[in-house]
What we know:
This protein folds into three domains: about 5-235, Glutamine Phosphoribosylpyrophosphate, subunit 1, domain 1 (4-Layer Sandwich), CATH 3.60.20.10; about 245-415, Glucose-6-phosphate isomerase like protein, domain 1 (Rossmann fold, 3-Layer(aba) Sandwich); about 440-575, Rossmann fold, CATH 3.40.50. β7 (about 155-165) and β8 form a beta hairpin. The chain is α/β, with parallel strands linked by helices and about 600 residues long. Helices cover about 35% and strands about 25% of the residues. About 55% of the residues are buried. The protein binds fructose -6-phosphate. Fructose -6-phosphate (F6R) binds near residues 293, 340, 393 and 471.
Amino acid sequence: MCGLIGYVGDEPAAAVLSGALARLEYRGYDSAGVAILNDGIIILAKDKGKLADVIKACKIDTLVGHVGIGHTRWATHGGVTKENAHPHCDDKNQIAVVHNGIIENCVELRARLSRKYKFISDTDTEVIPHLIREYIDSGLTFERAVFAAARELKGSYAILAVSMLEPEKVVAVRKESPLVIGLGVKSNYIGSDALSFLPYTKNVIFLEDNERAVITKDKVTVYNEDHEELTQKVTQIQWEWKAGTKGNYDYYMLKEIEEQPQVIRQSIMQDNNLINRMAIEILRARQVVFVGCGSSRNAALIGRYAFSKIGHVFSDVILGSEFGYFSESVDKRTLVIALSQSGETADVLDGVKQAKTNGATVFSLVNVAGSSLARMSDKVLCLNGGPEIGVAATKSFMAELCLLYLLAFAMDGTLEKGRGMLRDVSDLVEADLPRHSSRIPGIANRLKEREDFYFLARGINFAMAGEGALKLKEISYVHAEGMPAGELKHGTLALIDNGTPVVVICPTDYTFTDTITNIMEAKARGAHIIGISNSAESVFNDCIMISKVDEVLYPLVTTIPLQLLAYHSALARGLDPDKPRNLAKSVTVK
Ligand code: F6R
């Protein structure tokens, strides 16, 4: 959700910023831009469109200078236009600002500032450079003016600002949107995530809410809201930046799908003591509530079945954006388990803050170590999935499932046996891959004209129906609904017509017989049935065969075929699966 980068050092800023923006592009890709300081003036280059096109059209590679800021946009306020692209400047072009988040009081601020300064965009962000200008005009230095402006802003923000008045520095402020400082040699960086500058340094400082920073080539200074200098907590990032590259693949999504057998093996390498301590707390809690959004929420729904079936604990799942509405029922005997790939999803962070205020204990399952969610949790399990760049969640979903199963096995006192079962499944998932890769493109191609898909399943597989539908919607832009198979006859059956594609997840487990009955009902109305099963049933028009596994573990073997169906459907429709329209990977706004 908008990617920011700032750089001060000996290297040409244009090259550093362009590379960093490419690594941040998964956060937003409707427009991009940079502001680079050269010889005491700000050179602004920005436009709408994908980063590579903007770099080319604006000749960003040719810009000279060693200090700069850059931005990839995911539009919130104002359409996708050149004027609305970041950076935004003040009237005199002396200050340039990039921003991620939402300024909630932008209407009032704009009304006041537009009496003095000319606005040229529709964004909420543009109030920031004008506000900084107002403070400079009242006598403050640039640095102090940025901090004073931040005090007036309501909402969430990560802001980077540069000015020709103090051309050797990038000034940063953060509230509820991530910012990470990278410490280099004769160069320093600040970005929305550490991946942006990972080729240069692994030594980072995570800014906390309401902290500010001043970054020069030789020095980084971090302040609290009262402008007191803070002791810096430097940590080391474990990821290798090469893990975040596409390698020989055309798309990140396919690479990340195919990494999943290995991701299962990596994700289950967890500290036994930690898992067992967490399991004991789960068993002792008065109530256990999962919180997550999108695919992470679907993983939580599967976790709910696994906790019940394996760990004998009843739990509930609440969407991040709805969590606050249950605050009356959350107290210090509540255990909240938050799931998030990014650890920065605003709706999840909001829910977790509410839970903490009410005294609840918070465990989190996150992929990005050091993320906001990880830092605010009482106990954290890292997914160990490596960087996930494709916008659609794939390997992070798989890793979340594995950790939920591990916790469930630990609750049952069978952690080691369970880990062995998960390891065995990783081999079966690997063995299934070539078959899926040859079978699924043909199915996707045959169905490429269809605009409505239904996904059905029961029991622990039901959330896989939701996950399959979500993947298809987000990257293929077709309407898809996932639902418990038993619900079909309660209304949705009216939509089934001749040739309507119905994807059914029905391994020969405890859900099999009832699911087959529901498919018969759909088939009788003309549905085209795509079965995902370990048994080739005659009711299927198309069959995607999966390996037979223990019946609680089927979600692990149905994940990849559903992801590949969505991936190949996107390709069959001529779409870029890595950059679906209107979406961004890290959703840092409410
Ligand atoms: C779906 C997808 C999204 C995310 C959701 C939560 O493919 O990617 O639905 O799952 O935005 O993101 P995290 O897990 O980062 O909190």
